[in-house]
Design goal:
Keywords: ATP-binding, Coiled coil, DNA-directed DNA polymerase, Metal-binding, Nucleotide-binding, Nucleotidyltransferase, Transferase, Zinc. The chain is an alpha/beta fold and 988 residues long. Among the domains are: 171 residues, 3-Layer(aba) Sandwich (Rossmann fold), CATH 3.40.50.300; 63 residues, Helicase, Ruva Protein, domain 3; 103 residues, Zinc Finger, Delta Prime, domain 3 (Up-down Bundle), CATH 1.20.272.10; 66 residues, GMP Synthetase, Chain A, domain 3 (2-Layer Sandwich). Helix content is 38%, strand content 13%. It is built from 33 helices and 21 strands. It binds adenosine-5'-triphosphate and zinc ion.
């Protein structure tokens, strides 16, 4: 009754929001402010006789040392504020002023111990008004600062508070760490008040209680008893002894009690906040840094600029705070910070005036940083050092850096700047040389897992060790990430197990992963596709799946799948331990890494990953081919040709993406294309070439070149086709040699996304080819100069037969019907080659031929049958090719051929169609994912029709215009062509 009252005015909206926020704190049993939410929960809203509202706390909300009385929040009419203050015998009274839309919080002297023994409440000094002291640094940002002079004691209570809060609704917060004469008012205010804009992340440290020697012990996260008395800190700077004497509590408990860094008097909301390290010994996995910093302190070799850098969540911020505390710690012990001396208590209770965390964004104004430097020059209040911590210092502007660095020499020895950044590259060079740098490496999985175990023990969580190990392995060396994951899992309220972790993190279990990898390695195309789709459809992100597969393969390659691993892993590892398998796996790894890059750019990730999986089984072949291609390039170099002109990768086209071209080759191609385009007179055509076109490969030898161009839209293709002569001329002028050009359609990302609906799962659907070969003297024909078909293993689209400019070229005098690109390629499949087939034909690159060969029951390389599509670059003897080709043209009266296409229906079923043509008879064999085979023969000569069954759309004829076929597929919309594989074997 005789209690002094402090009133606080708070806008109602903020109050309600804040109350809700309090309510939402995650663990009501461990958070002191949540006790308030309990109060709020138990509030009775009563309408008063006037226009006031009265809130009554029910008995059930009484807590711990609470008085057991009801607490009321009562609103009063305007004008009655002072006169009608309710004189409750309760501990506090919160009145709502309707006129001012504010709550007035009256505080009574009677203690309201809303915290249980486990939690410390916030300190209120009843003998002092809520008056902030003026910190020397506070006027740095005067517009946001609150400056209220001391008031006579009578003027305390709500008048003072009102003044204070009416000023921009800003209030200095108590750090709520002292349990002396508790009252909820400040605690509530902490929660309710809006934050003062400040340069310093912890500027509130200088809150109203600077003069207060209170013991500053609170936030007992560890569940230790609360220390309530307020020892005389001034007289007893080193508290260790006193504390034990006074309280009888274990010093270690006290240390924990004091140690919690709660810079904004906010209670921890996550495990990671709650278990922030408070001493160097608690800093996991950073022993070198910790020892070095501690050594510097002990030896007194302190420099003025420190730079902490390293990946996120590795303890940089925590270390900077520990370092700051240790610098000012009064203990002579090596184990600093002691956590119990006056300075430590001040620091850990958030009231140190000499340690500041600077907001890097707000400090970027010149006058602010200058003001900061000016204030820094003032000697510290009570401690040895003034420490300024700049977290995320890469956000500092150049000017700010300059000012700080410039000031280093002028500032006295007591000023220390600690800069923290995860990204060293963004800092000015000068910062490096002026600072002592400390690198915080990623934390080892074993260290992380050990820490998680400790946390689980402290939090009383049930866990499986493997689950914690798994979390550690998924956290990428970041302790914070690991703690976050654990936090989330702990919320489920169950035992922390592997399956729970899998589910939460959204990853595939080992068994599923191994199953998929097994399928992919076994070339079982359809099952691989089905399985991959199932996984991705259910819950797995393709990127995640890719990285898991890559990790698994790495484990197998590194022999990590033998001991101490799951049974499934061991079995897989023993099945794939031959030299060839390991080679396959390592190439699979390369493909996956390429795929990962591709996935980042792609919107159709599922398809790309499926494509990559289909390539895993044949990856070795591709790689050897890449080597061959490289070899070939090198050979040409040796022959003294201009390297610029020799850019090719025969493997490139067969992959769904083109990432394997070395970067410098790509750049060369780009520059050639740019130069050629710029020679164009018409600026619109020049722009068209530059913007829509791309030179994707170039093979030059002995004055002749084959250039492959890519355009990403069919319209561009037709435009380019119309001007192919011009383009060839431009390239010829640039390269100074004769040029054949091939024009391919490679839909770009934007085009694909626009047409994503229609072309769901397609890659390199078709390419079309043109030649604009400038006629050479006939003597050149059949010589080494003809490279025309070297890279033609790609699926090509046939085109209207036109009178080609090269029709006078003896090499290419081919019948009208066969001038189609596709025909050429197809026919090549029937070449009665006299040469030994190379050990790796271009088709080997593709996994499909295995399937094709299996499905068509024919060998892939039939020496007699001449299965070879064309010569390898390694044997690059174009004349051979040309001769063979000519010979074939003469001999192949039957025009027997075969082609394969892979289609995909709406039901996501892949189907393989083998189209064989012998004379007038065309037979189509299809097999779908269910291994249903279906063959039908058409001897009617109706070659151009499409035949459709429930699962697949087959192109019955190899001479069909592919573009047309594709369009028809679209119109039908029940299946579409995924890929052509041409040719595969000889049809008899
Ligand atoms: N080395 C560590 N030992 C123990 N806990 C750590 C360590 N590193 C990080 N943590 C945990 O992660 C949380 C975040 O750490 P901290 O803020 O110090 O990391 P940081 O490296 O500064 O990260 P960021 O660069 O993102 O600011 C801490 O509260 C703590 O719980
Ligand atoms: Zn200390």
């Amino acid at each position: 009754m005789d209690g002094r009252r402090h009133s606080v005015d708070i806008p109602i909206s903020k109050t309600l929001v804040a109350l809700r926020r309090v309510r939402s704190l995650r663990d009501p049993s461990t958070i002191s402010t949540s006790k308030f939410s309990a109060l709020v929960d138990n509030v009775n809203w009563e309408t008063n006789s006037g226009s006031g509202i009265s809130l009554r706390f029910l008995d059930s909300c009484q807590e711990g040392g609470g008085s057991g009385k009801n607490h009321r929040l009562r609103t009063n009419n305007v004008g009655k504020l002072d006169g009608e203050r309710e004189e409750f015998v309760d501990d506090f009274n919160l009145s709502y002023d309707l006129g001012k839309s504010k709550f007035n919080l009256y505080e009574f002297s009677g203690p309201l111990n809303i915290d249980s023994g486990r939690y410390c409440s916030h300190r209120v000094d009843h003998n002092k008004s809520i008056i902030p002291s003026i910190d020397p640094l506070e006027d740095v940002d005067s517009c946001n600062e609150l400056s209220i002079g001391p008031l006579p004691e009578e003027e305390t209570d709500h008048i003072v508070s009102e003044r204070k809060f009416q000023s921009n609704n800003q209030v200095k917060k108590s750090y709520g760490n002292v349990g002396n004469g508790t009252s909820p008012s400040l605690s509530l205010r902490d929660v309710l008040s809006s934050r003062t804009a400040s340069l310093f992340a912890n500027e509130d440290d200088d809150a109203a209680y600077n003069d207060d020697p209170g013991c500053g012990i609170s936030c007992c996260w560890s569940g230790t008893p609360r220390f309530r008395e307020s020892p005389d800190l001034e007289n007893n700077p080193l508290l260790c002894k006193n504390v034990e004497e006074i309280s009888g509590y274990d010093t270690r408990c006290l240390k924990y009690t004091c140690n919690e860094i709660v810079p904004h008097s906010e209670t921890p909301r996550s495990l990671s906040q709650k278990f922030r390290p408070k001493s160097f010994s608690e800093l996991v996995g950073q022993n070198v840094v910790a020892r070095s910093l501690l050594g510097a302190i002990i030896k007194g070799r302190i420099t003025s600029l420190y730079l902490f850098h390293g990946p996120r969540g590795t303890g940089k911020t925590s270390a900077s705070r520990i370092f700051a505390a240790a610098l000012n710690c009064l203990s002579m012990d090596e184990n600093r910070p002691c956590g119990i001396c006056r300075e430590c208590v001040m620091f850990f209770s958030g009231r140190s005036r000499d340690v500041k965390e600077v907001d890097p964004v707000r400090i970027n104004r010149r006058e602010r940083i200058r003001s900061l430097i000016k204030k820094a020059a003032i000697p510290p209040v009570s401690s040895r050092f003034k420490i300024f911590i700049f977290d995320e210092c890469h956000l500092l502007h150049g000017d700010t850096w300059a000012t700080v660095l410039h000031s280093l020499d002028n500032l006295s020895q007591h000023v220390i700047f600690v800069m923290i950044t995860p990204d060293l590259d963004k800092l000015p060079r000068s910062a490096f040389s002026r600072s002592q740098r400390y690198h915080f490496p990623k934390i080892k999985d074993s260290d992380i897992s050990g820490r998680l175990v400790n946390i689980c023990h402290e939090e009383g969580l049930d866990f499986d060790q493997v689950a914690l190990d798994f979390i550690a392995s998924k956290s990428n060396g970041s302790m914070r990430d690991a703690e976050m994951m654990l936090d989330q899992l702990s919320l489920l309220g169950k035992r922390i197990t592997m399956s729970l972790a899998y589910e939460l993190i959204g990853i595939v279990s080992d068994d599923e992963l191994l199953d998929l990898l097994d399928l992919a390695m076994s070339s079982d195309t359809s099952k691989t596709v089905i399985r991959a789709r199932e996984l991705m459809r259910s819950r797995i992100d393709p990127m995640q799946l890719t990285s898991q597969l890559a990790n698994l393969i790495m484990d197998v390659l590194a022999g990590n799948c033998e001991e101490g691993c799951s049974e499934a892993r061991r079995r897989f590892s023993s099945r794939h331990n031959s030299e060839m398998d390991l080679q396959k796996l390592s190439h699979a790894l390369k493909i996956l890494s390429e795929t990962e890059k591709q996935l980042r750019l792609s919107k159709n990730q599922t398809t790309w990953l499926t494509v990559a999986l289909l390539q895993l089984s044949s990856s070795t072949e591709c790689s050897s081919e890449v080597n061959d291609s490289k070899l070939w390039i090198d050979n040409v170099h040796e022959r003294g040709e201009n390297w610029k002109h020799v850019v090719s990768c025969s493997c490139e086209e067969k992959r769904p993406h083109t990432l394997r071209i070395p970067e410098d080759y790509r750049k060369t191609l780009e520059s050639i294309w740019k130069k050629a385009s710029e020679l164009c007179q018409s600026s619109s055509f020049k722009n068209f070439l530059l913007e829509q076109g791309k030179l994707s490969s170039l093979v030059v030898s002995q004055g002749n070149a084959v250039a492959e161009l890519e355009f990403c839209h069919p319209n561009c293709i037709s435009k380019a086709e119309k001007s192919q002569k011009l383009i060839a001329n431009l390239l010829r002028s640039t390269l100074d040699c004769n040029v054949d050009i091939k024009i391919n359609l490679v839909p770009c990302a934007s085009y694909k996304s626009r047409h994503a609906k229609v072309r769901k799962a397609y890659f390199r659907l078709f390419s079309c080819s043109r030649r604009a070969r400038k006629s050479q003297s006939s003597t050149e024909c059949g010589s080494d100069s003809d490279y025309s078909e070297y890279t033609s293993e790609r699926p090509m689209i046939s085109e209207r037969c036109t009178n080609r400019p090269f029709s006078d070229d003896p090499c290419l005098k081919i019948p009208h019907k066969c001038c189609h690109r596709m025909d050429v390629v197809r026919t090549l499949g029937n070449v009665q080659s006299t040469r030994t087939p190379p050990s790796h034909g271009p088709l080997e690159h593709n996994p499909i031929p295995d399937l094709v060969a299996a499905a068509s029951n024919e060998p892939r390389y039939n020496h007699e049958g001449g299965v070879l599509p064309f010569q390898e670059p390694e044997h690059h003897q174009p004349n051979c090719f040309a001769r063979t080709f000519r010979r074939h043209r003469k001999s192949s009266s039957s025009d027997a051929s075969q082609m394969v296409c892979i289609t995909e229906s709406k039901q996501n079923k892949l189907a393989l169609s083998i189209v064989r043509k012998a004379s007038s008879e065309t037979s189509v064999t299809t097999s779908d994912t269910n291994n249903n085979s279906n063959t039908y023969t058409n001897s009617s000569g109706d070659e151009n029709g499409l035949r459709e069954n429930s699962e697949t759309l087959c192109w019955k004829t190899p001479t069909l215009h592919l573009k047309k076929a594709w369009r028809s597929g679209h119109q039908r919309e029940n299946s579409h062509l995924v890929r052509w594989v041409l040719p595969c074997a000889t049809a008899k």
